[in-house]
């Protein structure tokens, strides 16, 4: 790994090796300027011997590949993994905000006032965050390295054609684009029922036989709640139960017919906006755009395996033989705003004598129109209460956060979290240690190295 260097006036200089950086720090000729990326600042002015350095980025919805290189050296070879559950967190936040505001009396109604969404260039918060991460990573390196050119891979995808080819193997032509899976249907719900012939896909009961049908999200267990047709299934109320949503249930192991195309949709939405923003913010740099086909061909010529970092290396003008060790980073959430946790009551199941949570022995109702005393009601099997339900409220932040590097007994470990009101920390060694015996040496910040 290379070490970035800046002059006393904070002007970026050519990177150096870790060995030379240690020598400069030890002799007092340099001081630590910043840690991410690790950068030193020289204490005296030196002559500048600059070489052109290019920044190459393999953009993506889940992973970002970065390669920073000159003609003879590669200085950084990185992959950054984005958070995958951000949309769910936004949904939870919106749900709690609405509930909080509905509890206030005499407050002016809030509706139709989202002016931000009406502005040109508006993006959904989850997409905007990923776009901003691409820009922040670039500007973080630009601050401490003399980058003169940048190349970004910006893909263009036909999501409709990709979905149809994966689902049926056919290639869309002409008016096929107008005849999608919802062609002739007023609602998505009706389209799903019509496709499945108004039949429960689990037990086979039909609407003509009296089945009450529901639309089920197949990929719920992996967090895929998208409303694309291939992720929706027709089930009846008898099969659409809480028990069938849990491991071992009839709905748990089902897989969507096609994978989601979130990455393709993201690139179609932000590629030009992101490129124009970078180009207008840094007009003194040379800007280049490439596409996946060109990157794939360059990677084939260089005999490289498929990876996001190798894709970034294959871009641009320089392909030095001397490559740097690969580094892998995972994005961390900055803050956990969930202050309260609920622990369910536990009961003895009269059928087998095992201790189970109250949610497992529930009435099974998923709709208020259903009776609480139907054949799905399992509350009748609650024999004896083992423990009461309880709420735990976190009233303060703790000094140790997940991802922090700590020292315990002379050994480095990574903190997984704290418990018992912040008095004990759980490490990657799956041990619980008193906080008093732990020394934090590195705060995780926005990205955590992946071992």
Q: What descriptors fit this protein?
A:
single chain; 451 residues; alpha+beta; Nucleotidyltransferase, domain 5; seven-stranded mixed β-sheet; five-stranded antiparallel β-sheet; 23 strands; 26% strand; HNH nuclease domain-containing protein; RRXRR_dom; nucleic acid binding; zinc ion binding; HNH_nuc
Explain this structure.
The protein is α+β, with helices and mostly antiparallel strands and 451 residues long. It folds into five domains: 2-42, no CATH class; 53-84 and 125-155 and 283-331, Nucleotidyltransferase, domain 5 (2-Layer Sandwich), CATH 3.30.420; 161-245, no CATH class; 340-393, no CATH class; 405-449. Helix content is 22%, strand content 26%. It is built from eight helices and 23 strands. It has helices spanning 18-27, 86-102, 125-142, 159-168, 188-195, 262-281, 292-301, 308-314; strands at residues 2-6, 12-17, 30-35, 38-42, 53-58, 63-69, 74-81, 147-153, 213-217, 232-236, 286-290, 327-331, 340-343, 346-349, 355-357, 382-387, 390-393, 405-408, 411-419, 424-427, 432-434, 439-442, 447-449. The strands form six sheets. The chain has a seven-stranded mixed sheet. Strands 21-20-19-18-22 form a five-stranded antiparallel sheet, with no helix packed on it. Strands 2-1-4-3 form a four-stranded mixed sheet, with helices on one face. Strand 14 (346-349) and strand 15 (355-357) form a beta hairpin. Helix 3 packs across helix 6. The chain is globular, with a radius of gyration of 28 Å. The two termini are 15 Å apart. This is HNH nuclease domain-containing protein. It comes from Intestinibaculum porci.
